[in-house]
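Sequence in, structure out. Go.
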Amino acid sequence: MPDVRMASPQGRWILFTTVLGSSMALLDSTVVNVALPRIGRDLDANLSALQWTVNAYMVTLAGLILLGGAMGDRFGRRKVFVVGVVWFAVASLLCGIAPNAGALIAARALQGVGGALLTPGSLALIQASFHPDDRGRAVGLWSGFGGVGAAVGPFVGGWLVDGPGWRWVFLLNVPLALVCVPVALRHVPESGGEGARARFDVLGAVLGAVALALLTYALIEAGAGGWVVAVTAVAGVVAAVAFVVVERRRPDPMMPPDIFSSRQFTAVNLVTLCVYAALGGFFFLAVIQLQVVVGYSALAAGTALLPTTVLMLLLSARSGELADRIGPRLPLTVGPLLCAVGMLLMLKVGPGASYWADVLPALVVLGLGLVMLVAPLTATVLGSVDVARAGLASGINNAAARAAGLVAVAALPLLAGMGEEAYREPAAFDAAFGRAMGWCAGALVVGALIALVTVRRPPPGCKRPECLRYGSVVSPPLEGEPVRKRLV
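Output:
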């Protein structure tokens, strides 16, 4: 039984290193967006290259995050966490020195592998190390500090882009890793390793990542047309079908198909796909709109987005309490609708827009919508399956959200009619941004309708969320017992 107490020096060191490690991956999921226009100019990259700068990271992270957790159980959670931090730092260094867009994209894919190792490992170390009486508080502090990191990330990213340059958005991870790794090796106890003889689903993870990569490529390059795009799209569909077949036939699948026999779980994941597709597309395009069209600096654009995350940090716990009293259906219906209104309000954000009259109201409405839906979404996911599978359910939901975001980043410019050079032409980008906000709002309305029709109150006694304060806008929190135990 884990016996580290929260008040002990070792407990504080464990919390410090896990927060620091997870924040590295969380920051890169949000900070890089702020740097995209400057990266495009410096590397002479077109819009598709900027899409890949975001999606190369998300493909490997979303495709491998469940497998990364399973490796912690087999080889040791601290060991895999440390390997993930080192891997992430080396890949970040490669991003920082990338001479061209192709090298940057390849390094971003490597970064995602490191993120898939360290992201689930940070929570697993807390769950495996702290005394049961302190674990809830430790998880709460971990999620709260991570939320603060998510809030300041775009601000820090903007300051780095306008100051020493966009390369420091990546290079900053190197000194953070140099602090994180020694602390982890010295103060964090090893756990796991009990699955040395068990198998885990490498084939399923590879097929999932390949399917995401191929379909993403086909969506990004669809505007160019040609037989290569068509072949890639077909290959992506074949890989996706093969993934489903493998998961159905394996005795130890990464994503057991029978978990979707719960209608509530399936419905909530459909809501997740709609919501996080819209959010992924929005946050990819909004920072470009603010810089290219409105004329903000990178620092101003990053700072402009702070209200959304701050509202989530301040109010998400109360939203969870409200959903406990009235049930999740109303919050999961009203929340996406508020987000849709916020995105439609962004239609006013064009040349000469006022921050206080145009930008801030849209972000406040969007933030309130996120406040309403994130905590109830997580609680409903956990409550829709058996308690023993709550960790697995949360991991699948988290991966689904990330996959939805990367597909949106790939597809939204195509749907909105953005050309390869659109971000260099303010008028063209502004027009396409307006169309994109319509698509995002539509996805959110669909999510709200799914919630209204399908979501029901979870049964009493189900697993409840521990991450009560959460600030990430790219995915819901990981929750429950260590995800790894369900995958090995």
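Check: The two ends are 20 Å apart (CA to CA). The chain has a mean pLDDT of 90.
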